[in-house]
Design brief:
Blueprint: H1 2-36, H2 48-59, H3 74-97, H4 102-108, H5 117-131, H6 133-142, H7 149-159, H8 165-181, H9 192-195, H10 197-213, H11 219-229, H12 234-270, H13 293-301
Helix pairs in contact: 1-2, 1-3, 1-12, 3-6, 5-12, 6-11, 8-10
């Protein structure tokens, strides 16, 4: 099971890790803009850089034509699919991280700084990833809600939230069609007991539709937005989300580094040292005639 989860963790993160890093860092930038702009009496939405970061975070600068009406583009699909894959990467990472003993648990929760740079990166990837797991998981789980209607509808049912705006419009149009079929009974005596609840329901429905047209989310969308941005717990949760997004942006980078070091180490072990055949040098022994020291001395005198 652990080996299978390790493969999922690795082969989903390798192709999509760059996009995960972009989403985390751009989300962190959006959060900082929203919180810091009011301190300078500024509206974050009026800052050009803020709008550019929004386009990067939501569509990777590939904004669809009808972005607020469910329009799709390559960037929108890629960010949503990356968020869904990030959920699997996080869950598989927890399975791989899960220690087998209490002693191993202590080592999995600490970052060593005196055992080399590679060990520091590994401990940071493992330990810090666990600390921010729940926040990154909520961000990734709710991210595709703002891209895919079918995903938003499923999440609304899962969390018991009201029907999404588009589905609500479709339901209201169906109700209008049913009312059109009964036009022949328009002059019949109305039943006041049934009509009393209709104006309020229609009013609520139109209110939700107007809110959607003006960019305001209904209660269901508000919950997902709070879970995605961290506004559910005030400034405290937003600070935790900011830290989680910062660490989440570095997790793919550290993962790439560990994968590269592991691959280079394997390649280094696989190479055999080259053997150079050298012919041994033979020592040539010169046999000079042995002369007596006296003869040599006399020869030099002459």
């Amino acid at each position: 099971m652990r080996k299978f989860c390790l493969k999922i963790h690795r082969w989903l993160a390798l192709p999509l890790g760059v996009v995960m890093t972009v989403l985390c860092f751009s989300g962190l930038a959006l959060l900082l803009f929203k919180d810091l702009a009011p301190l300078f009496d500024m509206n974050a939405k009026e800052i050009p850089l803020y709008t550019d970061i929004v386009r990067l975070h939501r569509w990777l600068f590939m904004k669809p034509e009808n972005a607020h009406d469910g329009g799709l583009s390559l960037g929108r699909i890629l960010t949503a699919v990356t968020s869904m894959c990030m959920v699997l990467v996080l869950l598989s990472g927890v399975v791989v991280w899960w220690p087998k003993s209490k002693k191993a648990l202590k080592s999995r929760l600490t970052v060593s700084t005196n055992k080399g740079f590679r060990r520091f990166v590994y401990d940071s990837h493992v330990s810090l990833g666990i600390y921010v797991f729940i926040f990154l998981f909520l961000m990734a789980l709710t991210g595709p809600v703002f891209s895919f209607g079918w995903y938003r509808q499923g999440m609304s049912k899962l969390f018991g939230q009201p029907m999404p705006p588009k589905e609500m419009k479709a339901q209201l149009s169906k109700d209008g069609a049913k009312q059109g079929e009964t036009n022949e009974k328009a002059f019949a005596q109305p039943d006041t007991s049934k009509i009393k609840g209709q104006p309020q329901a229609q009013k609520d429905g139109t209110k939700d539709m107007k809110g959607d047209q003006q960019g305001k989310k209904p209660k269901g969308g508000k919950l997902f937005k709070q879970l995605h941005t961290g506004s559910w717990g005030g400034w405290f949760s937003r600070v935790l989300y900011a830290i989680a997004a910062f660490i989440g942006g570095f997790l793919p980078i550290s993962g790439y580094y560990l994968w590269w070091k592991r691959r280079s180490t394997k390649e280094a072990k696989g190479l055999k040292p080259t053997t150079i055949c050298r012919k041994p040098i033979e020592r040539v022994q010169l046999n000079y005639p042995t002369l007596h020291v006296q003869w040599v001395f006399l020869f030099t005198l002459q």
